């Protein structure tokens, strides 16, 4: 809809015109009266016809004050945000191409505009069937406009499809780049054996959650915003420490890019963590650096003995990052042979972290000198099986340790009636109990 735009050169007239328009219900209050750079004031009316405007002037103040008239197109409520940006784009395309963009195409484009998105600077990550669709191939000029107008902190757009359940490294095979340079196309070699140059060329994102900066390469590592509630809980839980005379220790068996690891470190823990994916290790290193933690990465063929460990601790290292399977964790602790005040063990793998439960009870019995350790078990569980799973896990820990169930945290739904849950257990050693 087009309305009249009244331009006044004399500031003294502004109040009078505003009052008249307000009184007759013809002032567009959604638009501020602004003074332009050339000194002219612009007043947005709800009047369509010049004659109506002049009639109101004569009736209310008995004269036509000195003014210029223009028109403007009203911004509708939908014209805000992504939809508004799209409508402006289509308007612009009509003028630029000098032809009508087919109604049916416009309808398809409109229908596939993103409805759900997350901003992970410099990437805008969309979900659902959206800008990756064929119909957009002829409308990629929209993408930079969308970023410039609505997401100025972003330079890249991608669409996120669910990650593949069976991939133990939880890699984002289904990330579809839409706009921007996402670095080299992933290959098997790039996934499993990346070089320093590959890390450098790749596209990296970062986000700050609960004051903790995380870095990841969206084509090679997973990142889940949905876990934010659990991240916050871990940060809170690990604030309480039992024994302030020794260095509290946390073990993160599936560190990924390190969110839980970074939370424990933020609360003053020394962390031992394991991770298979070299890209996650690189993300973790970037996260450790960004959050100012000293760390030591230990490759599969390197040894961490007590001498090296104490030297590292003396130099301020608090994160020991093992780039290997956590099946090695007990062998590593035996080799290290240093008693630990083990307060937390985090098992953050879905759909199940069962494979590492046995290592946990061994750690509690054989390397921890703490009276009790909290174990946080992640699992996808059907809502009908919460009790059964809680008890099964408890029985497992009770085989070799004293164990008590503390809490079941529902993190998010994974499928209808299936929840990503975290179960907390308080586990104490049975050594010397025979
Ligand atoms: C759900 S992600 C971890 C999320 C993590 N909390 C974060 O902040 O990124 C699980 C991670 O465990 C790793 N992983 C899976 N099996 C493993 C194993 N046996 N040993 C070590 N890491 C493993 C995967 O490569 C993946 O990065």
Q: What's the CATH first level of the largest domain?
A: Alpha Beta
Helical segment count: 14
Which kinds of small molecule does this entry bind, naming each only once?
S-adenosylmethionine
The best one-word shape is: elongated
Q: Strand order, biggest sheet?
A: 13-14-12-11-15-16-18-17
Q: Describe the biggest sheet?
A: 8 strands, mixed
| Low-confidence sequence ranges | none
Helix content: 25-40%
Strand fraction: 25-35%
Provide the CATH architecture of the largest domain.
3-Layer(aba) Sandwich
Distance between the termini: 85 Å
Provide an overview of this structure:
The structure is a single chain. By secondary structure, the chain is of the alpha/beta class. The chain folds into 3 domains: 2-73, 2-Layer Sandwich (Alpha-Beta Plaits); 81-176, no CATH class; 222-428, Rossmann fold (3-Layer(aba) Sandwich). Helix content is 33%, strand content 26%. The protein is built from 14 helices and 18 strands. It has helices spanning 11-23, 50-61, 81-97, 103-111, 142-150, 188-192, 196-201, 228-237, 259-266, 278-290, 306-314, 329-336, 357-366, 386-400, and strands at 2-8, 34-35, 41-44, 68-73, 116-120, 123-127, 156-160, 175-179, 205-209, 212-216, 248-252, 270-274, 294-299, 317-323, 341-347, 373-382, 402-415, 418-428. It has an 8-stranded mixed sheet with strand order 13-14-12-11-15-16-18-17, sandwiched between helices. A hairpin with a 5-residue loop joins strand 2 and strand 3. The longest helix has 17 residues, at 81-97. The chain is elongated. S-adenosylmethionine is lined by residues 168-170, 222, 254, 256-260, 274-277, 280, 325-326, 348-350. Pathway: tRNA modification; wybutosine-tRNA(Phe) biosynthesis. This is tRNA wybutosine-synthesizing protein 2. S-adenosyl-L-methionine-dependent transferase that acts as a component of the wybutosine biosynthesis pathway. Wybutosine is a hyper modified guanosine with a tricyclic base found at the 3'-position adjacent to the anticodon of eukaryotic phenylalanine tRNA. Keywords: Cytoplasm, S-adenosyl-L-methionine, Transferase, tRNA processing. Belongs to the class I-like SAM-binding methyltransferase superfamily. TRM5/TYW2 family.
